[in-house]
Amino acid sequence: MCIALPRKIVEVLDRERAMVALAPESNDQTGTADAVSVALLAESREAIEAMVGQWVLVHAGFALSIVDEEDARSRLQMFAAMRGDTTPLDLRELHDVLHDALHDARPDPRRDGAP
């Protein structure tokens, strides 16, 4: 199974090649920023500039999708917990999303012709 990690775009490195720099991971002691391609997301070279400051899910050197900051931070908390970080998780948002998804997935008995 592959995991895409949330990262924040901080700078455009090469607009022609659709390469951006990411903020260093919080557990990265060196403070080095990674470079990834946003070619799968950017519709034009100009659109790459607009991506600075946005959070993206990154896997294998590519930004796969844009996510909002709340989603990114929630994912980062869960990954930290899997690494053994004992900081309490706030899973209220995840609960709400799952609750809504389950509620929406339930068949409506009135639509199935039930009395």
Descriptive overview:
With 115 residues, the protein is α+β, with helices and mostly antiparallel strands. The protein has a single domain (5-105), classed as SH3 type barrels, CATH 2.30.30.140. It has helices spanning 45-50, 69-82, 92-105, and strands at residues 5-14, 19-22, 35-37, 55-59, 62-67. A 5-stranded antiparallel sheet has the order 3-2-1-4-5, covered by helices on one side. The mean pLDDT is 80.
Segments where pLDDT lies below 50 for 5+ residues?
none
How much helical structure, as a percent, in the residues? 25-40%
Oligomer: single chain
Run of helices and strands: EEEHEEHH
Shape: globular
- The CATH first-level class comes to Mainly Beta
Roughly what is the average pLDDT, rounded to an integer?
80
Question: Tags for this entry?
Answer:
115 residues; alpha+beta; SH3 type barrels; five-stranded antiparallel sheet; 5 strands; 24% strand; globular
